[in-house]
Amino acid sequence: MAYSDKVIDHYENPRNVGSLPKDDTNVGTGLVGAPECGDVMKLQVKINPATGVIDDAKFKTFGCGSAIASSSLATEWLKGKTVDEALAIKNTDIVNELSLPPVKIHCSVLAEDAIKAAIADYKKKQEESGAVKVASQHAQPSA
Amino acid sequence: MKLPIYMDYHATTPVDPRVLDAMLPFFTEHFGNPASRNHAFGWEAEQAVDKARKHVADLIGATAKEIIFTSGATESNNLAIKGVAEMYREKGNHIITCVIEHKAVIDTCKKLEKQGARVTYLPVQKDGRINLDDLRAAITDKTILISIMTANNEIGVLQPVAEIGAIAKEKGILFHTDAVQAVGKVPFDVNAIKADLVSLTAHKMYGPKGVGALYVRRRNPRVLLAEQISGGGHERGMRSGTLNVTGIIGLGRAAEIAKAEMAAEGARLNALVKRLNDGLHKNLDELYINGSMEHRLPHSLNISFAYVEGESLLMGINDVAVSSGSACTSASLEPSYVLKALGAGDDLAHSSIRFGLGRWTTEEEVDYVIGKLTTVVRRLREMSPLYEMVKEGVDLSTMQWVAH
Predict the structure, then answer these.
(1) Which of the residues B328, B386, B389, B390 is marked catalytic?
(2) Which candidate from B346, B383, B402 shows the least CB-CB separation from A32?
(3) Catalytic residue positions of A, numbered
(4) What confidence tens digit (pLDDT) does each residue in A11-29 have?
(5) Is the pLDDT of residue A133 over 90?
(6) What is the pTM of this model?
(7) Cα-based angle B291, B336, B78 (whole degrees, multiple of 5)
(8) If residue B217 lies in a helix (H) or strand (E), which one and from where to where?
(9) Which residues of chain B does A65 touch, with a Cβ-Cβ cutoff of 8 Å?
(10) Is the dihedral of CA B291, B120, B194, B133 positive or negative?
(11) Cβ–Cβ gap A19/B388 under 8 Å
């Protein structure tokens, strides 16, 4: 199977590999996929509750090159976005950017799921910690 | 050392230059049709084919008349199984095979099932071998054929074919074995294992692609087959079609070389496999060998690198040609059915790499592969959420995964 140059670039130089402190109330963690399906993505976002902007994003992925590239690209896109902007990222955006073939579309779906799961986790933690209602709903998009 | 390195000798092998030399004159100079009985061109070709037939027979302890040339092992498997099912229809309709057979056997059996045959697919144990008690229990008075491979193409595990042959003989059932991966690599004798039908191919033993053979026993019992390709009645009427003379000569020469060099080559490759295995285990933890180490082809190793997905591993070692059981390397998105059958867990099937060493594999190449894999596995594990969780003490089997 031939990989696109962008997939190879993300595979060889993955952006934002690593972990954020998962107990931090400003950090949301999404863990999606299953080992028996051959891919598991852990995607984390650190959000400034005052502005609703994603300050940092990290990932770790067990999966094929396209799964690694999809999550690496997702973290790259997430940084600096507001929560609402992040939720607007569609798997098809990832497919187009990485030129994923049809058999690899599930990798992009997984990345979208991981973004949503990470943000949902952040919101849940914010509510549980009694913090102000999730900032994204108040914050003005910056541009 | 030349890159890329080829370590996928189960898939195919290069043609040995000595084999090619034997073949070349028969393309242009001695181009006759062995079926031409009335002139020198035909006689010459027939003589060369007879010589090749003898070499193939010698390699497996058969007689020349028991060798039927085909286009390869897929055809041989089809001819053996369909040919028996059709010829012995009156006697019964039950076939016993096993879940880790090559698709050429499994899909042939599936097709026969659609036509009314009954097929039992024996499971395998954790080491990749069938349980002989399962085999005995599966036999009925309608069983006409047992088809169990000699060595598996993915894990290299050798089945207890001598025991299977003895059971088949005792019950009066025909025994077919797909011996594609074993013939020319380990000693193989049709009488020692009491095989009635044996499939083999040239391109797994340094011969050309597109030619193979089916051994069909002529005595005790005389095995009959319904032909699957009809025509001029070549090959004792079991396989019509003008003989692939150059291919057959290549197969014969490859068999001759294999017989002469098998012992030394097997020992050399086994030592290289041990070097590869030891080197990887020295550098990396959590490696799992798939299939028996004891009952294994000498040139074969299949390892799962836990917490690393196979296709991403192949991407990282793209100057080394190997195969993976990962779903991502197949069109079906299903991981290897062979590894699944071992019961190792789908996650380990996704993490597997098959190494096939061969005639031109060097120590230097093995050391390069060890070094390269060590670097890539370490890098990918740093990137693996599973590895991180395990290192944090999480038991992955108790996790609730969201399957997709």
Answers:
(1) B328
(2) B402
(3) 37, 107
(4) 999 999 999 999 999 999 9
(5) no
(6) 0.92
(7) 95
(8) none
(9) 311-312, 315
(10) positive
(11) yes
